């Protein structure tokens, strides 16, 4: 759900959108919507709404979608790092040996994270629930990266990273928004620490996992179905 709280300084909004406010981001994305917008073709012929109402709905849907930029990059980055063989070996040693409960793993530069996340806005209209899907893409090119593990879990990450993110409406092209951040040092305190699996997982990163809660749930008041066509 959208929130009035300030996003963390390591959120996608701060790192790749310069901390831009929601209204500015919505205006940018609204200008890149398909000609019919989102709400009008989604509701189709089932309801008759004013054009201004459709535009208002589009802005509310986009404002809800923007909230996905407020997530911390620690989530996808740390879960991706947990797939590295070097971290699995360090996790095993810090978990099994009580004399060495902590270890630091240094990864050379040149790794690239690609993360894809599908999120939904639920639109409630006249007793029906319509999902509206957005896709968030994240790439991170990492420099030298230090990972601190404690008792088999990632506790802290320090790295230099160049980030890029983009937000898409369903499969429509082009993207609604795209942001980039030049290389900068990130220090991520991972709370709670992320446990490293000891078996090799897939390198595909999807955050959140399937079945996660939708970003927002929007009700459309005052909708009515069009009258049935009169027989000719």
Shape: elongated
What letter string, H or E per element, gives the SSE order?
A: HHHHHHEEEEEE
Which segments are poorly predicted (pLDDT under 50) over 5 or more consecutive residues?
A: 206-211
As a percent range, the share of strand residues is 35-45%
Distance between the termini: 47 Å
Number of helices: 6
Which class best fits the helix and strand makeup? alpha+beta
**What is the helix fraction of residues, given as a range?**
10-25%
Global Rg: 22 Å
The largest sheet, given as strand count, sense and whether it forms a barrel, is: 6 strands, mixed
Oligomeric state as shown: single chain
Compute the average pLDDT. Answer: 85
Number of strands: 6
Task: Give a brief description.
The chain has 232 residues and is an alpha+beta fold.
What does it look like?
- Residues 205-232 are annotated as: Disordered.
- Helix 2 crosses helix 4.
- The chain has helices spanning 12-16, 22-30, 39-43, 51-66, 74-81, 85-96; strands spanning 102-107, 111-125, 128-150, 153-169, 177-195, 216-220.
- It contains six helices and six strands; from the N terminus they run ααααααββββββ.
- 24% of the residues lie in helices and 37% in strands.
- The protein starts with 11 loop residues before the first helix and ends in a 12-residue tail after the last strand.
- Strands 1, 2, 3, 4, 5 and 6 form a six-stranded mixed β-sheet that branches.
- Strand 4 and strand 5 (177-195) form a beta hairpin.
- It has 232 residues and is an alpha+beta fold.
List keywords for this structure.
232 residues; alpha+beta; six-stranded mixed β-sheet; 24% helix; elongated
């Amino acid at each position: 759900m959208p929130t009035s709280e300030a996003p963390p300084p390591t959120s996608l909004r701060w790192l790749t959108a310069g901390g831009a406010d929601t209204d500015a981001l919505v205006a940018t994305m609204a200008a890149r919507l398909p000609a019919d917008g989102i709400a009008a073709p989604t509701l189709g012929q089932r309801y008759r709404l004013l054009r201004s109402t459709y535009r208002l709905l589009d802005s509310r849907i986009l404002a809800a979608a923007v909230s996905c930029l407020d997530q911390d990059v620690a989530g996808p980055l740390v879960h991706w790092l947990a797939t590295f063989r070097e971290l699995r070996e360090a996790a095993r040693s810090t978990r099994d040996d009580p004399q060495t409960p902590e270890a630091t793993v240094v990864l050379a530069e040149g790794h690239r994270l690609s993360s894809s996340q599908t999120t939904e806005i639920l639109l409630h209209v006249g007793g029906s629930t319509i999902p509206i899907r957005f896709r968030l893409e994240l790439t991170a090119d990492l420099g030298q990266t230090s990972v601190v593990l404690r008792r088999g879990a990632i506790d802290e990450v320090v790295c230099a990273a160049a980030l890029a993110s983009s937000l898409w409406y369903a499969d429509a092209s082009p993207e609604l928004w795209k942001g980039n951040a030049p290389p900068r040092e990130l220090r991520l305190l991972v709370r709670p620490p992320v446990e490293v699996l000891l078996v090799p997982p897939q390198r595909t990163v999807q955050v959140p996992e399937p079945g996660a809660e939708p970003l927002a749930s929007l009700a459309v008041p005052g909708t009515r179905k069009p009258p049935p066509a009169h027989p000719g």
